[in-house]
Amino acid sequence: MGTVLGVEGDPIRLNVLLYPLGVWVVMAGIAVANGGLREIVLIPRVGDYAGHVLSTALLVAAILLVSGVYFSWTSIGYTRSELVLVGVVWTVLTVGFEFAVGYVEGTPVSVTLGQYDVLAGQVWIAVPVALLVSPLLFGWYFST
């Protein structure tokens, strides 16, 4: 018992999903610090667009590092369904957090959505993609 969703033979144990929530909190803190670094250090030195690209690359690297460290360290054997769910939860929490902060700051939704416009040269989409795939990638790698 204690399982929900998943597919037969690949259950999702809700109790093992609490640790990845803590990992997301750590990554959220890193993302906030990264935003400060971008605004205070990077943009004044390299310009707006280059600062955003560099900041996004640094955040993706940090996400991959934190995720890799967690899944290499944990003794929990996550199922494939659990790893996919962790990635989805991390992504939804991050995008939701971004839109919530935008709302509080009075940023129009169109501006926040514009950060996902790859055709306009925006690279932010790499962050939610990294959050989505890193649990499955590292969870699978370190469990084999």
Strand order of the largest sheet: 1-2
Range of helix content: over 70%
Q: How far apart, in Å, are the first and last alpha carbons?
A: 25 Å
Overall geometry comes to elongated
Question: Which stretches of 5+ consecutive residues score pLDDT under 50?
Answer: none
Count of β-strands: 2
- How many domains make up the 3D coordinates? 1
Q: Helix segment count?
A: 5
Radius of gyration: 17 Å
Main sheet summary: 2 strands, antiparallel
N-to-C SSE series? EEHHHHH
Mean pLDDT: 92
- Fraction of residues in β-strands: 5-15%
* Computed structural class: mainly alpha
Task: Give the gist of this structure.
By secondary structure, the chain is mainly α. The protein has helices spanning 18-46, 48-73, 80-105, 109-114, 126-143, and strands spanning 3-7, 10-13.
Furnish the topology, listing elements before pairings.
Elements: E1 3-7, E2 10-13, H1 18-46, H2 48-73, H3 80-105, H4 109-114, H5 126-143
Antiparallel strand pairs: 1-2
Helix pairs in contact: 1-2, 1-3, 2-5, 3-5
